[in-house]
Queue: 4 jobs
Job 1
Amino acid sequence: MNKLINLCREKIINPVLHSTAPVSEVSLGVAVGVFLGLTPTVGAQMYLVAIVWSIYRYIFRRHFNLPVGVAMVWISNPLTMVPLYYLFLLTGYLLLETKNVLSYELFTETLTRISETAGTWEMVIAGAHFLLIDLGWSMIIGSLVYAVPGFIISYFMTAKIVASHRKSKARLAGMSYEDWRTQNETQH
């Protein structure tokens, strides 16, 4: 259990708290990562964050913290992926009033078989085909039920937590929050 807690701290919490980007950029990075982490895009999520970052930066001329966004997609990981994705599927079935429901056992079996596919690229293609084509709209709609609120909630929670953490650091340094931000935040 301690190993899991340390892994979460190292991969998810530390990139957020130790980032020097402005709070809004860190918060948006978390929100984008959470959104994509809550979609059935296994194997491509980190690449998708980079694509969204590129579009946001070069087309809209805005910024979000890319390393934080990439770290956040790990909310769906080898331990959480199967239960999360099956929850997405059931939610989609419910919303679309689907009659033929895939059992958890068959769902798990199929994902296990796909994960044993030789080669990362082949695994990504097989996984995407199963999750997005074979299961289709049920999986996509079901994931959006969690991804959209996840985006919104994670943005505001992160903004509050990071600002509070930085204000504490400023107090410990004996300076105002504005002075601390001027010395420590990187502007783009």
Note: The chain has one domain: 2-184.
Job 2
Amino acid sequence: MDNNTYIPILLDTLIKKKNLLDSLLNITTSQEKYINEQIPDMDLFDQTLIEKENIITKINQLDEGFEKIYTYVQEELIRKQIQHKEQIEALQDLIRQITDKSTKIQALELRNKVKLEAYFQMKKKEIKNFKTSSQTVSNYYKNMNNQYEGNSYFLDKKK
């Protein structure tokens, strides 16, 4: 096994994942900004969803590759811990940073979810109120159109 090749690949994979998580955190922060606006910009919000989907796909690919390589070198790293101490510490540090970023993203996602649900509830209520108002106006006009519009029965007999 050539550790000089595989361990740097693991490090590089974690660095790429950390950078992708930074991008994901920035996009999620942008989503929060869009949701918090007086009139939320749902078009920009939708664009960020597409960007996030692409980043998440890349992260999943990196995770799969990391798992395969780590499974391959795991025994060697355990047997020769002292020889690879610096590299193992670097891997552990990157994993800690990735975990911290993931936690921040999850917390932000949860806040955004709550805000989005409140926004959709408000929109649902507006639609319901609009339908009710529209029906009321429609019923009023129907009622007004069906009333008898004949001439007056009482005539003034004075001339």
Note: The mean pLDDT is 84.
Job 3
Amino acid sequence: MWKYLIAWVPMVFIAIANGLLRENFLANRLKELRAHQASTITLIILFGIYIWIVLRIWKPQSARHAIIIGLIWLVLTVAFEFIFGHCVAGHSWSRLFNDYNIFAGRVWILILIWVSIAPYIFYQLHK
């Protein structure tokens, strides 16, 4: 399982690069909400490519194993978002929780769903 924990780390850098793309390119061209939504889509695509590659190299042993990988990545992603977002980036708790408000058009939760289910989906496709 260690290799999958280590494989999660580059996802942080992929997410940061995606955030920089949003701030330096999309934010100047779109309203904030649309930039958030567009960057969510690009991050889903980038994570999908990365996860597909990782799971081609290190195939999960079973469907159950793939589900566990997804759940571990989910916990790491949420923990990182809140710890980094609050302690390093200095965002307020209300701002961080606002990204989970789907009724306000915030679609960050789609990233979490994707990170959770992608290992299982790719496991099934690679069988």
Note: The chain has a mean pLDDT of 94.
Job 4
Amino acid sequence: MIEHIGGNPDANPNPWSSLFKSIVILRVGAGLLLLKYHAWAALHSAYDFLWEEQPWEWVNHFNGAGLPWPTLLAPASAIVLGAVALSWITGFLTRLFAFIFLPCVGAFIIFAGEKGAIHVEAGWLYLLAAFTLLLFGSGAVSLDKLFHIGENWGASKKKKGW
């Protein structure tokens, strides 16, 4: 039986050498952009809304879109944005947070598209990045790879004889 296919099996694979051969650049880049341009301001505004009792435009937009419980849904969306951005930057549970992010960005595209917002293009790009990260995972340089999260999920049933 063939145990290795490809290059030299004795070579010690360095995860840093595969930085440009993996999805790490997309993951970290999308995470940093999401944090800088969307999540950081949303988390700050959510904090001011919840603890300082200041008005927040997201609540008005969610209410205007007919979404239920806008005072609960707006801060929850900001927390999801922040968690997704941090997950993508660090590469920790990337597929899980990409899966959680898909409905959020899908809803954004639907509700922002009705009003003709110019940010719909960014929503589509984040949707494609989330879908790509859902399919391919976090890449070689990530906390998932460091802690071997999700590597053997399919193989564990085969080893046990299920």
Note: The helical segments are 24-51, 57-64, 70-90, 94-114, 120-136, 143-146, 153-160.
